[in-house]
Amino acid sequence: MFRIGIGTDTHRLVEGLPLVVGGVRVESDLGAEGHSDADALAHAIGDAILGALCEGDLGVHFPDRDPQWSGANSMELLSRVMWLARERNLHVVNVDSTVTLEAPRIRSYVDAMRKNIADVLEVDLSCISVKAKTGEGLDAVGQRLAITAQAAVLMETTKEIA
Ligand SMILES: [Zn+2]
């Protein structure tokens, strides 16, 4: 059996905060604001996996009013989401994702992001796609007010070992 999920996430960019994308600290004058480490890519992938499981979204499992998740490492949240997937006997087949950020250009960070995500999702690097786009100077991303990420995930039932 296959299951498919999609996820999307947006964080406001502000001065004086770190910018973490796919578990990688990106050198930037602006960082992402949020209750956790505000990792938009990790959150979009987490929502996509929860969507494939029909398990709501990250906000349901890790509420932002819960101090436990304040400043949380989002790769840790992703590994908890994977724990839910394993409970349902599902594993990740592949992930496709897009990060939209005006500046800095993050293409040089993409392979490190893919490696982090592949490790947490327990798949080969070749199963994780991260694409980088800009907002072309338009909309909130283009105006450097926000970072957004989209993700799609395909999951499959893990074969029982007899
Ligand atoms: Zn988020």
Describe the overall structure:
It is a single chain. The protein is of the alpha+beta class. 29% of the residues lie in helices and 32% in strands. It has five helices and seven strands. A five-stranded mixed β-sheet has the order 4-1-7-5-6. A two-stranded antiparallel sheet has the order 2-3. Helix 3 runs parallel beside helix 4 (110-121). It is globular. The model has no long low-confidence stretch (mean pLDDT 95). Bound molecules: zinc ion. Zinc ion (ZN) binds next to strand 1 and helix 1.
Question: What class would the helix/strand composition place it in?
Answer: alpha+beta
Major beta sheet, specifics? Answer: 5 strands, mixed
Number of β-strand runs? 7
Distance between the termini: 18 Å
Please work out how many helical segments DSSP would assign: 5
Strand order of the largest sheet: 4-1-7-5-6
The H/E string reads: EEEEHHHEHEHE
Helical fraction equals: 25-40%
Set out the fold topology.
Layout: E1 2-15, E2 19-21, E3 24-26, E4 30-32, H1 40-52, H2 58-61, H3 74-87, E5 90-100, H4 110-121, E6 128-133, H5 139-142, E7 146-157
Parallel strand pairs: 5-6
Antiparallel strand pairs: 1-4, 1-7, 2-3, 5-7
The protein binds zinc ion.
Zinc ion binds next to strand 1 and helix 1.
